[in-house]
From TrEMBL:
It comes from Spodoptera exigua. One of its GO terms (cellular component) is nucleus. Keywords: Metal-binding, Nucleus, Zinc, Zinc-finger. GO terms for molecular function: zinc ion binding. This is Uncharacterized protein. The keyword DNA-binding does not apply. InterPro entries: RNaseH-like_sf, ZnF_BED_domain_contain.
Length: 295
């Protein structure tokens, strides 16, 4: 038995070492593949910055940008929102829930702090309990006996309502950068017109997050091509947008020419069908681009 157990251990160790060797080989091939990809990208100049290094350009998520702006603004209401969560838990107890049902009121909502729309639902539901909570004499409900608390909750909900509309808009399947920016600006204007302390602070938070969007060359290029909103760009942003579009078109021409060369090399002499990879529009744009470069 001892001899058999030793043999089993040796076989298991051998199998384990073989598996590790296989994984190491796979990783080495994986790394080699990435190195080849970057080498090809560098040779074809797919996207190279001024230092000659490969650069991948991304655009921020619209929904996440809105969520970050709301999180920044709601950080000033942390204590008030915690009190709302505490009251919501108390109101969901059997006795309080029964009393709410007797008065024809719905059950309280406890939000998920990482989802701002659920926080808006919680605040909206608590506002319906104003008469119910104002008549309670327990010490835990004394915070909501003050009118200033209800005013802050109402201002918070008023600000979050346009954000709900914006959140629904940016979920559209065919949303363009211009459509998003228009909806974003509309939300800012609606909140700014409320002219409350929280609304002003909320607009400041949205403007700060907007700066990160307007520093992205892809976003600037898309806004530049939309006549509805390109007037919002400064002269410096216009120059960055034009440079990005020209660079993108140069990459397109370079890639298109390399595809034409490959197709020409793969064609057989007896093939009577000519290459049709370049359309009339491509030829026209190439001619216009060459003329502009000569000028």
């Amino acid at each position: 038995m001892i001899r058999m157990s030793k043999q089993l251990e040796e076989e298991m160790l051998d199998n384990t070492s073989e598996e590790h060797d296989y994984v190491d080989d796979e990783d080495s091939e994986h790394v080699t593949g990435y190195e080849m990809w970057f080498a090809e990208a560098g040779n074809s100049n797919l996207n190279i910055d001024n230092q000659g290094q490969n650069k991948l350009t991304t655009v921020r998520c619209a929904a996440h940008t809105l969520q970050l702006a709301i999180r920044d603004a709601c950080s000033e209401l942390r204590d008030l929102l915690e009190q709302c969560r505490h009251i919501a838990r108390l109101l969901r107890s059997p006795n309080n829930a029964l009393q709410l049902g007797v008065q024809g009121l719905l059950q309280a909502i406890i939000d998920c702090p990482t989802r701002w729309d659920s926080t808006a639902d919680m605040v909206e539901r608590i506002l319906l309990f104003k008469d119910f909570l104002s008549g309670r004499i327990e010490p835990v409900f004394q915070t909501f006996a003050v009118e200033d608390t209800w005013q802050k909750l109402k201002e918070t909900l008023d600000v979050l309502k346009p954000c709900r509309v914006l959140s629904k808009t940016i979920q559209h399947e065919q949303l363009t950068f211009g459509d998003f920016y228009l909806a974003w600006l509309k939300c800012i204007l609606e909140i700014e017109n409320m002219n409350t302390v929280f609304a002003i602070f909320f607009v400041i938070c949205m403007r700060e997050r907007e700066k990160a969007l307007l520093e992205n060359e892809c976003f600037l290029g898309a806004i530049y091509l939309d006549p509805r909103v390109n007037s919002m760009l400064s002269n410096q942003q216009l120059e960055l947008a034009r440079a990005h579009l020209v660079q993108t078109y140069q990459i397109y021409l370079r890639l298109n020419s390399s595809v034409d060369v490959r197709e020409t090399e793969n064609e057989t002499p007896d093939d009577p069908t000519p290459s049709t990879s370049s359309s009339m529009l491509d030829n026209f744009l190439q001619t216009q681009f060459r003329q502009r470069c000569q000028d």
